[in-house]
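Input (structure):
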């Protein structure tokens, strides 16, 4: 059985081996911090998106979804503060020439102290880090790195440069001729596409405050240092919702969304102790309250989602920079105002990694002298990429035909696979490794009485059920209702 440290490595290699995640441009030696999703990864990703979209948009009468473009007017990023302030503190090691985020080096040291049981030291460093970030004092960050004797993992030396700021936005040229081309940015967050469409949606949808606008889409950040697989990527996807409220009610809504979002995570059956809230010590320029929902990955607690009270900052800035009024007339109080905003922002790729880490289990099935084990992905059935696999016991005597009949009946509504190769035991293991909740075995009895054997992934128990009951059983166990109720 693997140690905690090995588990993450195993999740990464398992993701590749079974077609969940590949390094981008792998045959050209890859592109740093860019990844492709394979055949099962794309299914899992779509299922996570569907769960989020259904629970945010479909379940809330006052939330609608949009899909805005990645390219936006360059002035938007000036207005939002990203051109001037979207920076990370970086530090270089002079010997290895490797670049790191200064705050990440310190966070890793805190995790190490916690692991080693040095809780007092961990708390002190956390406080010092929070204070340094709050005061934007880069020299304190460097001093902390020196004081805590943090060495470069590559060179092993403590020969550091000063800490500097680094803007994370990618820019590109817009227009066909280089001379009149204008620099545009690849969006670093999807939120601004929502803010600039606030009035379009409000008016065309006759929305009344409070209401929300949700969107799922790509975002791009030139991260100083890319680490931990799909945890920190340069191209990634966000699922964001901006909830527009009457000024003065924002804290109430902040509390509401903070609780609602954790509930969304826990509904998947993830143990509650794997999650924690982390209040921001340093608030972003636009926020008056902010909390992260963190999950305990094999490498420690890390942010998966942020809930931010963004005040009226963004709409006010866009009103000023565009010259267009960004106000709402509230008939209940007979007043015009710029709404306040609560944002929920979750990284789809981080949620994907969380789902993989949480599902991945190495199980010892040894009995007596017989050693046996399996790797199983215990996904919530609603997220599982493949819902069921149909397996004829043998490749002859009409069993494949019967299996195909079942397959054709199920594939209209579920993602199902057909597998007739190798022994049933080997086929079960293959399905365990990709997290398929149900294996359906078609045997000779199936031809006589129209029943099949269902084998359950987690309990490995088998039961005989009528083929007529199959569709209903799979629908009930893999459907969204159990998560959304
Ligand atoms: P971090 O502190 O980890 O850089 P952040 O606070 O900058 O994250 P936000 O700007 O709040 O992140 O973005 C919202 C969510 O988008 C994050 O909670 C995270 O899940 C996701 N996210 C942000 N940056 C990345 C990235 N480089 N790769 C993958 N997901 C990301």
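Output (sequence):
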């Amino acid at each position: 059985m693997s140690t905690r440290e090995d588990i993450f490595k195993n999740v990464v290699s398992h993701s590749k081996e079974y077609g969940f995640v590949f390094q981008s441009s792998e045959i050209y030696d890859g592109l740093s911090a860019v990844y492709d999703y394979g055949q099962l990864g794309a299914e899992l990703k779509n299922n996570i998106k569907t769960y989020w979209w259904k629970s945010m948009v479909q379940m809330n009468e006052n939330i609608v979804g949009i899909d805005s473009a990645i390219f936006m007017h360059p002035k938007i990023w000036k207005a939002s503060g990203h051109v001037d302030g979207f920076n990370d503190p970086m530090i270089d090691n002079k010997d290895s020439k490797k670049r790191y985020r200064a705050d990440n080096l310190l966070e890793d040291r805190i995790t190490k102290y916690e692991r080693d049981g040095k809780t007092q030291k961990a708390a002190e460093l956390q406080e010092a880090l929070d204070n340094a970030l709050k005061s934007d004092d880069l020299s304190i960050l460097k001093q902390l790195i020196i004081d805590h004797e943090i060495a470069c993992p590559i060179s092993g030396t403590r020969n550091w440069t000063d800490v500097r700021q680094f803007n994370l936005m990618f820019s590109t040229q817009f227009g066909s001729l280089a001379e009149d081309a204008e620099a545009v940015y690849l969006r670093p967050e999807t939120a601004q596409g929502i803010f600039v469409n606030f009035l379009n949606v409000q008016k065309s949808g006759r929305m009344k405050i409070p209401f929300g606008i949700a969107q799922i889409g790509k975002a791009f950040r030139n991260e100083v240092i890319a680490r931990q697989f799909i945890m920190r990527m340069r191209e990634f996807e966000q699922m964001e919702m901006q909830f527009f409220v009457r000024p003065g009610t924002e804290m109430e809504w902040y509390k509401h969304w903070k609780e609602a979002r954790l509930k969304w995570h826990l509904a998947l059956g993830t143990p509650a102790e794997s999650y924690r809230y982390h209040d921001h010590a340093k608030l972003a320029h636009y926020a008056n309250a902010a909390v992260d929902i963190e999950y305990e990955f094999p490498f420690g607690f890390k942010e998966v989602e942020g809930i931010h009270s963004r005040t009226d900052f963004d709409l006010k800035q866009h009103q000023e920079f565009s010259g267009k009024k960004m106000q709402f007339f509230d008939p209940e109080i007979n007043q015009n105002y710029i709404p306040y905003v609560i944002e929920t922002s979750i990284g789809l790729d981080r949620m994907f990694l969380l789902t993989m880490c949480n599902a991945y289990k190495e199980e010892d099935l040894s009995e007596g002298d017989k050693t046996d084990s399996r790797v199983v992905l215990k996904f919530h059935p609603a997220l599982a990429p493949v819902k069921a696999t149909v397996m004829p016991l043998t490749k002859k005597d009409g069993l494949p035909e019967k299996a195909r009949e079942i397959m054709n009946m199920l594939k209209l509504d579920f993602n199902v696979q057909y597998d007739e190769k190798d022994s049933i035991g080997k086929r079960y293991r293959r399905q365990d490794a990709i997290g398929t909740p149900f294996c359906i075995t078609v045997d000779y009895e199936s031809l006589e009485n129209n029943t099949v054997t269902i084998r359950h992934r987690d309990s490995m128990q088998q039961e005989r059920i009528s083929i007529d009951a199959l569709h209903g059983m799979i629908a009930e166990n893999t459907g969204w209702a159990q998560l959304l109720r």
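Notes: The pocket of adenosine-5'-triphosphate is lined by residues 189, 221, 223, 232-233, 236, 238, 303-306, 345-347, 349-350 (CB under 6 Å). The CA atoms of residues 61 and 184 lie 35 Å apart.
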